[in-house]
């Protein structure tokens, strides 16, 4: 049996072991709850999530590629003991993938509530990691955070977090390296292992955040990463609050994505630019944003700045969840489709028992298809042929059914591939520019 096969099987067993350990923790919580005949139901809300890898804006196109890295969030009312997970088969970022290359990445979440206790458990895993042309390598990385609350106390843990065959500049790093250990990364900057931060008073609320690897770029380098760029591998965050949630807020926004394609290389290049989510804790009414700079994927896609925003919280009438995505200087399929700007706006409001959804502000500026000027687009759901590719839906707006928890979904521009083409994107693939979703419900 080959060493590679052994390593991958080991990684699979480790990932499975993480979830088994999580399930065991949940069972322990429930079994340790004790008698609760006279106790009120154990209330509270959950938050957090996990992902395989991420980068900040100063990392440039690398941040876009890593935007699709298996993000899994925790519903604020929990998972009821069920495991939620998202996975990506492979991940690549940087010119010729020199910045990061990895196999499977997975984000997983589970929660449970007993008569006298509750737990939230988030796991991020990444296998076959190679960063910065082999400067950092690992067979498997697992980042785990947990918050456990009883009626009398609250605790947070990173138990189960580990490295397998981690090396930095060829030097092995212990699997149980002390949290917060930082070492020099020759020609780049520094790398920190198991960077842990805790938040809250651990009475009414508590949270723990873990980055298994944090690379901080502190000098000019051959990878084209700007000074100040930061790369994170295997992030997990778990949060619990004793305050129950009356209204659930939820949303997501990103600038670019390619779905239903088997071309992993192109999917990684296009990524999810400026990916941003909205949890049930909201933003306390503030507008928060994430920005990425130019993204390019061969002749298939070239865009300028992508900006996503989120806003959520209580209002005088009820609650608001609003997500936006704005993408500038869009050029698809070697200029077959061009636009000065694409905008997607998804806004959901709850007023008493009534929920209202809006997509006002969504649209396209200075659109041109196959050399034909279409102009500005504000009307919804217009379909137009893209010669040699398929068709485009302009300002696509999909409103949820009444009395459901479904999200309003808006795509500023969506191209559906229906025929063979010289760009190597197979029929059935779906390219979205400017995507936003939102919902709010009781």
Report on this structure:
By secondary structure, the protein is mainly β. It has two domains: 227 residues, no CATH class; 194 residues, no CATH class. Helices cover 9% and strands 53% of the residues. The protein has three helices and 31 strands. Strands 3, 4, 5, 6, 7, 8, 9, 10, 11 and 12 form a ten-stranded antiparallel sheet that branches. Strands 19, 20, 21, 22, 23, 24, 25, 26 and 27 form a nine-stranded antiparallel sheet that branches. A six-stranded antiparallel sheet has the order 2-1-16-15-14-13. Strand 24 and strand 25 form a beta hairpin. The N terminus is likely disordered.
Count of β-strands: 31
Domain count, please report it: 2
DSSP strand content: over 45%
Helix content percent band: under 10%
Shape: globular
* Whole-angstrom Rg: 23 Å
Which spans have pLDDT < 50 for at least 5 consecutive residues? 1-16, 29-34
Tally the helices.
3
Compute the separation of the termini in Å.
54 Å
Overall pLDDT confidence? 88
SSE class: mainly beta
For the largest beta-sheet, the strand count, sense and barrel status come to: 10 strands, antiparallel
